[in-house]
Amino acid sequence: MLTSSSSANPLLRLKKNASRELSWVVMAFGLNGFNAFFFARNSASLQWFVVMLMVMLAVVGGIVYQRLRVLREMEQQHDNLYQSLKSRISRFRHLMRLHDYVGVVTLILVALTVLVVRQAELLEYVSSSGPNWGWHWAIVGLGVVTVLALIYAGYAIGKLEHQRRYGRHLDQLEAAMRELEA
Q1: Phi, then psi, of 80 in degrees rounded to 5
Q2: N- or C-end of the chain: fewer Cβ atoms within 10 A?
Q3: Higher per-residue confidence, 134 vs 128
Q4: Euclidean distance between CA atoms 173 and 51, whole angstroms
C-alpha cells in the first residue's frame, strides 16, 4: 500500500503535494530576484525587505525539501517499518508546524519593515498636537490590532491549508498503521 502507484495512496499524494509546493517556492524565489533588481535602485530599506523575503523563502524551501526527504525515507523498507513510519510521520508534522511558525515570523517582519519604512510619517502623525491627536492614537491602535488579527488569520489559514494538503493524508497513514497494529 505504501509504495503502490494508486491515486488513493496517501504517501504518493503527500509527495506530489510537497513537490508542487517546492516548485512554487522556487518560482517565488525567482520572482523575488526580479524584485531585488527593481528595488536595487530604490531605498536601502526596500533592499533589506527583499533580502529578508529571500531568506524566508530559502528557509521555507529548506523545510519543504526536508519534507520531501522524510517522504523518501518513508518509502524505504526498514527492519522495523512501524516504528520508522511513526517517527517519520512525527518528523513531518514537526516540519509542518515549523513552516507555520516561519510564516508568522515572515508576516511580523513584513509589518516591522513597513513600520521602519514609514517611521517618519507615523511619528509625525501621532505626535501632532492638534485637537484630534487622541483620534490619531486610536487609529494607530486600531491599525496594530488589525495587523495582529491579519497575522493570526494568516497563521490559521496556513494551518488549515497544511491540514488539507498533508494532514489528512498523514491521518490516513496513521489509521492504516493502527489497523495493522490491531
Answers
A1: -110, 80
A2: C
A3: 134
A4: 39
